[in-house]
UniProtKB/TrEMBL annotation:
Highest taxon of the lineage: Bacteria
Protein name: Serine/threonine protein kinase
InterPro entries assigned to the protein according to its UniProt record, in alphabetical order: Kinase-like_dom_sf (IPR011009), Meiotic_Drive_Suppr_Kinase (IPR052396)
Source organism: Heyndrickxia coagulans (Weizmannia coagulans)
Amino acid sequence: MDGQLLKMIEEGLVEKILLESKNPHDPVIVKNIPDGWKCIGTGNYAAVFSHATCPGLAVKVIRENTEDLKKEAKVYKQLGDHPAYSKCFYHGPNYLVLKKLKGITLYDAIAKGIRIPASVIGDINEALLFARKSGLNPYDVHAKNVMMKDGRGYVVDVSDFYKEGKDEKWDDFVKAYQKIYLKTLYKHPVKIPYKVLNFIRHAYRFYKNLKHKRSQKRKHASNLSAYHRQN
Ligand SMILES: Nc1ncnc2c1ncn2[C@@H]1O[C@H](COP(=O)(O)OP(=O)(O)OP(=O)(O)O)[C@@H](O)[C@H]1O
Ligand SMILES: [Mg+2]
């Protein structure tokens, strides 16, 4: 990457901004955004910025220096070129320079009452299948991590695709899209307040944790009774 541009990113942005976190399950809070830079999104670990002079780029800055960033860069390498994904051009100690995706997240689309067409869901399903074929495990795919633009779907956050295990967020979203969304908001789009969406997000996490704990308890009880039967 161009040295001047890197200097502008490192000295002009990364060294100046402050990222705070009040709750690990809520997006980071960004302070001290330097002139010329705009925050285009926040997640629980990172904030993403763009600059008017390089509109095709998005700079993702993470809260802490972690090994995870290296893994995210590696995921992009493994994905290669695919129209539904961004690309990683460079990775620094606590930031990545990515291709900026256009459009809005599905979370924002629901909040703003913008209709989500089925083609978007189809594109994302296809992109996740592509990731699996590339040896990755689509993980943590939720409404803030996918975007749409002109009826096409995109996956904007691949940071957890190296993880193992099954993550059901996207499957659950698709089920809710088919069973509820298509019959309601798709037909009559209305704005849903962020407070309501945030409540649903937290309630969903609570329900999933409870379900997981119950299944662990059941597994433990059945292991214990098998042990007693053998001894
Ligand atoms: N390449 C990109 N182009 C445009 N917008 C982006 C890009 N990458 C991230 N964003 C925006 O920034 C937000 C936060 O980025 P991202 O999801 O990568 O952060 P994160 O902290 O890893 O998220 P999570 O909490 O899901 O782990 C996204 O929801 C999206 O709105
Ligand atoms: Mg994210």
